[in-house]
Amino acid sequence: MLVVVVVVVVVLMLVVVVVLMLVVVVVLMLVVVVLMLMLVVVVVVVVVLMLVVVVVVVVVVVMEKIVEQMQHEETGVPVRTVKSFMTKIPSVFTGADLILWMLKNLDVEDQTEALHLAHLVAAHGYFFPIDDHVLSVKNDSTFYRFQTPYFWPSNCWEPENTDYAVYLCKRTMQNKARLELADYEAENLARLQKMFSRKWEFIFMQAEAQSKVDKKRDKLERKVLDSQERAFWDVHRPMPGCVNTTEIDIKKACRMNKPMKSSKHLAVGVAGGRISPSVSEADLTNPVESIKHDIDLLRTRVDRCNFKVSKAAESFISFWEQYQEYDPFITPTDPPSPWVSDCPDFWEVERVGREIPGKRVRRWAFSVQELLKDSVGKEQFIKFLEKEFSAENLMFLTAVQELKCLPQKDVHCKVQAIWDEYLSPNAPVPVNIDSSSMNMTKKNMTNRDRWTFEAAAAHLYHLMKSDSYSRYLRSEMYKEFLSGGRKKPCGGPWGVGLWSWRGVGVLRRRRLKGWNLSPEVSFS
């Protein structure tokens, strides 16, 4: 009996051992399969990464080949030195020339695709606008310049914050309008100065040394190098709201380079760049206090408005104080307004010629819009412009405003009439506008609409607002009206000033053409 029991036990033990061995074998096989799957995944990831790298390299090589073709002396984009009134703009080309070259030499379907490709190349800094921080391309007469190969992204630039600080500091030392810091650059400089306060003297010395070297260069060469350096930093420290083509996420960079965040990150981060200081010893030893401080700082930022209420209130109060005299609900008029009373004397007083109230004349000095809204003020301004031999500017602006109110069927004829009257080579009443506005107007004449003369009108309005209007306010004519010694003029809708022989001739020609000469045309 004992022997039987022993045999049974031995058999059971053998069965258990066999089962355990089978389980171990199965587990080992599963582990091997998992390891093989992981190896396959790793290989696939490596292959994908290699393919991505190869694609990026190919794209960069192709992009640089295209740029090299663009810079070819004979078959490339025409690069020239443009002469302006007092200066020269060296080594530039226009956006229209660039798009035309791409349509002729590259396999692009249409202008939209060419613009998209040009924008991508510009976003990587291979060419750039000479007077704008936004790296984009427009199909117009905007000037662009090629970047030097030294600053191309293929050189794997990783500029440090100290280099950016030296560059901004150097810009502040050069007293030139084209080198003035933009608002976001001034903010970055202030943050960098706070970040590198201990070694700012060394940064300043570097900037000073570079500035002295730059001053020894030729003037045109210095212009080109300054713009190329600015474009380099526009790529690596882009303006807020622009695409960062370096493709490094600031959040990921902070996580990889620092064990934790601190309040200093929030205080000195620079938009568009990888600017962030190292974690201090106090933050590492006492992380709870640091996090509490960060929470308090974030709450403060949430509660803070972008525009202070006190400033808004101050602006509203200033506007109210300026215009309260002219609001009949606040300051009663004499005679009372017929809109708020039953007394019709106001209409009779306005109809009969009388002295112009002083407060009405004072309102003309608020802005040129207030002057032109007032029919009497507009008449007097026309008389003043007649003396200055510039009345045609206001007449042109009036015609452009009338054009925007015409039916669509009359727009084409009115555009041609305005062109013949003011801008054509044989115009009877020519207006003086700059060359860029004239070129844009000529281009718009090929596709006439209500906004054909927008550039010319904006230029003349700016001149009238900044020059003629300010001289009118200083003139004896305005001072005489302000003293209350003049009566309301009686005459045609354009006042007495235009009823000279020259003005009568102009108005007669316009009436023959069916133009509306109502003075009630507002300018915005």
Automatic annotation (TrEMBL):
GO terms for biological process: G protein-coupled receptor signaling pathway; intracellular signal transduction; negative regulation of signal transduction; regulation of G protein-coupled receptor signaling pathway. Keywords: Membrane, Signal transduction inhibitor, Transmembrane, Transmembrane helix. One of its GO terms (molecular function) is GTPase activator activity. The chain crosses the membrane at residues 6-32, 39-63. The keyword Ribonucleoprotein does not apply. Residues 73-148 form the DEP domain. Residues 367-482 form the RGS domain. GO terms for cellular component: cytoplasm; neuron projection. SMART domains: DEP, G_gamma, GGL, RGS. PROSITE patterns: DEP (PS50186), RGS (PS50132). It comes from the Eukaryota. CDD domains: DEP_RGS7-like, GGL. This is Regulator of G-protein signaling 7. It comes from Chionoecetes opilio (Atlantic snow crab). The gene is Rgs7.
